[in-house]
């Protein structure tokens, strides 16, 4: 019986492996980056998160919203961990629409840490209209919303190329070898030396792409570090408890003649 | 049953027990004579109970923070993930819990298929189990719609559209299900209501399932009737409780592995894109546990035919006890059926695989072959094999040697050793 099953399994596996390549979309596999937040005990690179926020603020945020994040998140543990004063300053640098006041009027005021990130456009339609009809997606959970996650986002950021001969692009469409279908409406916004990092790091395209992707990965999973830490503790606890219960089971079943 | 009459020790307990015999029930559950040769495939009943309770408890907490409105649902899930204390943990337990629930239920069902647990006198247990399974699929589908991501929306659109295949009244039924002219806010609202209801229906059926089980008692790997209580049985507590606890803990380690280290691997990344009725995803796929049925659905070029075949794939299981003609329960003593059992397992796995792939080319061929074989297994293989198969000698009892006592000296003992 065992032998029979094994041979069938092998046939099936070989069959699946042989048909897998038949199904491949029109895109290059994303570049594999050795992110610090990968793995069972992965954590974010704090400096990279802070630089990534700077890239987001100076480059991405003019088109992309991040409506599910609050400025206070920037100071919370497991994130960029800006100091309380820095978070207040960052929040205050944005104008927030509030109200209505006692006269029924809306008014603007400097942002507070409890405010959510200010969106560049009042609504989706306005955002699309300002970007040639293509809505720049909200980036709060973007890393979780794309197959390939952080690797994919990073790859797209560094994947702009001149179109190969024979490929013609419409106005406002760019060639990107990692994008599905290779066509993207977001222009290549990164160039070497584009921004002056607060910590003095040289802002190469690769550096900025990595930093902002790290920032987006945190934005999508702000609980990642706590999740990993808790997970390790939970698994250790469960392993110990399982061992104890196993020994108890052996002891209890030793009263009768049956193996357990 | 063979339980001795339970007499409470204290007067107060006796007074209570005479009016509501909960203590008698407790004593019955504790002493319940269980075959001592149950292997670890029998621990999934307890694991499934744990899964159901986990889903209900986490689900109730999630419902305290979730907003069932088309404009707010996606944001409220993000609110749970970011702002609710341990919201991420509760939600990931709930979403991965659904997958773990199905993993356990599939093992439970295939265990039943292998050891013939659906056969007389356990048909009602089997049918109740299938009703639980049906409700589980419905609850899981409804729950998947609630985050109101792209797969939620389009999955709901595909599944509800199945009903439009019904002749004459199909369109009306679909509109009635939606509460609108497409999947929209009223749909989400009622799906939430039903998603909250179904687990409690499941809980009720689980009580009946266990009740029905306690009438004939457990089947066992040898598949023979046993005298209760006897040398072949052990009291449920502490023998089975401790064994179930051990198995449950191993299961929980795997569960925790998903929740803490790869919580989104079983989901679809598109469901983190808010629902958009104007953009259809490239491939609409259901969650992994529904994929075999999705493959069967798509293997038929005709919509109504596909729907009928898909539902038949489930409903054929309801008559399984009468399709299987073999008098021998356990596949351990059925050398031919045993091989067909494994082919069925592989067939269902293959259907699941092609269900995740686009319905074209070689996948469509595989889906059709797999579908045809699935039905052949139940309609042809089971009745015929049951009649023609020469089964191995069956032991008299769990602890005694086989009836013939000849060439096959101690199948029963070998079994016990394995267990």
Question: How would you explain this protein's 3D organization?
Answer:
The complex is a heterodimer of chains A (260) and B (419). By secondary structure, chain A is mainly α. Chain A contains seven helices and four strands; from the N terminus they run αααββααββαα. In chain A, the strands form two sheets. Chain A has a two-stranded antiparallel ribbon. In chain A, a hairpin with an 8-residue loop joins β1 (95-98) and β2. In chain A, α2 (46-58) crosses α6 and α5 packs antiparallel against α6 (205-220). Chain A is globular, with a radius of gyration of 25 Å. In chain B, α6 crosses α7 (150-162). Chain B has two domains: 32-221 and 233-284, Cytochrome Bc1 Complex, Chain C (Up-down Bundle); 287-397 and 405-419, Helix Hairpins (Orthogonal Bundle). Chain B has helices spanning 11-19, 22-31, 44-65, 73-82, 87-115, 123-145, 150-162, 170-178, 185-214, 236-261, 291-298, 303-315, 320-323, 335-355, 361-388, 411-418, and strands at 33-35, 233-235. In chain B, strands 1-2 form a two-stranded antiparallel sheet. Chain B is built from 16 helices and two strands. The longest helix of chain B is centred in the middle third of the chain and has 30 residues, at 185-214. With 419 residues, chain B is an all-alpha fold. The chains are: A mainly alpha (260), B mainly alpha (419). At the A-B interface, α1 and α7 of A face α4, α5, α10, α14 and α15 of B.
């Amino acid at each position: 019986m065992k032998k029979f099953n094994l041979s069938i399994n092998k046939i099936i596996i070989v069959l699946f492996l042989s048909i897998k390549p038949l199904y491949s979309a029109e895109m290059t596999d994303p570049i594999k980056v050795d992110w610090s937040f990968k793995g069972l005990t992965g954590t974010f690179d704090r400096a990279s998160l802070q630089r990534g926020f700077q890239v987001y603020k100076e480059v991405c945020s003019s088109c992309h919203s991040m409506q599910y994040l609050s400025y206070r998140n920037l100071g919370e543990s497991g994130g960029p961990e800006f100091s309380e004063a820095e978070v207040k300053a960052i929040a205050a640098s944005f104008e927030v629409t509030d109200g209505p006041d006692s006269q029924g009027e809306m008014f603007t005021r400097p942002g507070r840490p409890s405010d959510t990130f200010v969106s560049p456009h009042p609504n989706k339609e306005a955002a699309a209209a300002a970007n040639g009809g293509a809505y720049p997606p909200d980036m709060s959970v973007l890393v979780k919303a794309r197959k390939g996650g952080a690797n994919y986002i990073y790859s797209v950021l560094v994947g702009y190329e001149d179109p190969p001969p024979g490929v013609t692009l419409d106005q406002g469409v760019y060639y990107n070898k990692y994008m599905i279908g290779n066509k993207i409406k977001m222009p290549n916004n990164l160039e070497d030396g584009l921004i002056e990092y607060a910590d003095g790091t040289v802002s190469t395209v690769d550096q900025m792409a990595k930093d902002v992707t790290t920032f987006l990965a945190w934005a999508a999973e702000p609980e990642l570090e706590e999740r990993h830490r808790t997970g390790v503790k939970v698994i250790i606890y469960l392993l110990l408890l399982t061992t104890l219960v196993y020994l108890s089971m052996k002891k209890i079943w030793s009263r009768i003649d049956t193996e357990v | 049953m063979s339980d001795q009459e339970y007499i409470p020790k204290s007067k107060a307990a006796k007074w209570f027990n005479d009016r509501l015999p909960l203590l008698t029930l407790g004593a019955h559950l504790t002493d319940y004579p269980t075959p001592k040769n149950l292997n670890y495939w029998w621990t999934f009943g307890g694991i499934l109970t744990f899964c159901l309770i986990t889903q209900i408890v986490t689900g109730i907490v999630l419902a305290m923070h979730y907003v069932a409105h088309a404009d707010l649902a996606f944001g409220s899930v993000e609110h749970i993930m970011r702002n609710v204390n341990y919201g991420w943990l509760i939600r990931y337990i709930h979403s991965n819990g659904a997958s773990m629930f199905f993993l356990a239920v599939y093992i439970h069902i295939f265990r039943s298929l292998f050891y013939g647990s659906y056969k007389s006198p356990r048909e009602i247990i089997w049918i109740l189990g299938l009703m639980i399974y049906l409700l589980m699929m419905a609850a899981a589908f409804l729950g998947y719609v609630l985050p109101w991501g792209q797969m939620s929306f389009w999955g709901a659109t595909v599944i509800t559209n199945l009903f439009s295949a019904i002749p004459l009244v199909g369109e009306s039924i679909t509109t009635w299900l939606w509460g609108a002219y497409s999947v929209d806010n009223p749909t989400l609202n009622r799906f939430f209501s039903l998603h909250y209801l179904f687990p409690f229906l499941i809980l009720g059926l689980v009580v009946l399932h266990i009740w029905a089980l306690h009438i004939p008692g457990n089947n066992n790997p040898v598949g023979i009737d046993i005298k209760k209580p006897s040398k072949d049985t052990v009291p449920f507590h502490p023998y089975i409780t401790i064994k179930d606890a051990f198995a449950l803990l191993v299961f929980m380690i795997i569960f925790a592995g998903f929740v803490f280290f790869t919580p989104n691997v079983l989901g679809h990344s598109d469901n983190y894109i808010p629902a958009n009725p104007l953009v259809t995803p490239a491939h609409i796929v259901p969650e992994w546990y529904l994929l075999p049925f999705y493959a069967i659905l798509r293997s038929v070029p005709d919509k109504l035919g596909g729907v009928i075949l898909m539902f038949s794939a489930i409903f054929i299981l309801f008559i399984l006890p009468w399709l299987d003609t073999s008098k021998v329960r356990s596949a351990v003593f059925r050398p031919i059926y045993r091989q067909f059992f494994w082919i069925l397992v592989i067939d269902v796995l293959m259907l699941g695989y092609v269900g995740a792939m686009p319905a074209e080319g070689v996948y469509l061929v595989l889906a059709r072959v797999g579908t045809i074989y699935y039905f052949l297994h139940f309609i042809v293989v089971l009745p015929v094999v049951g009649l023609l198969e020469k089964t191995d000698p069956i032991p008299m009892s769990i602890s005694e040697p086989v009836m013939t006592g000849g060439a096959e000296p101690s199948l029963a003992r070998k079994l016990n050793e394995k267990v």
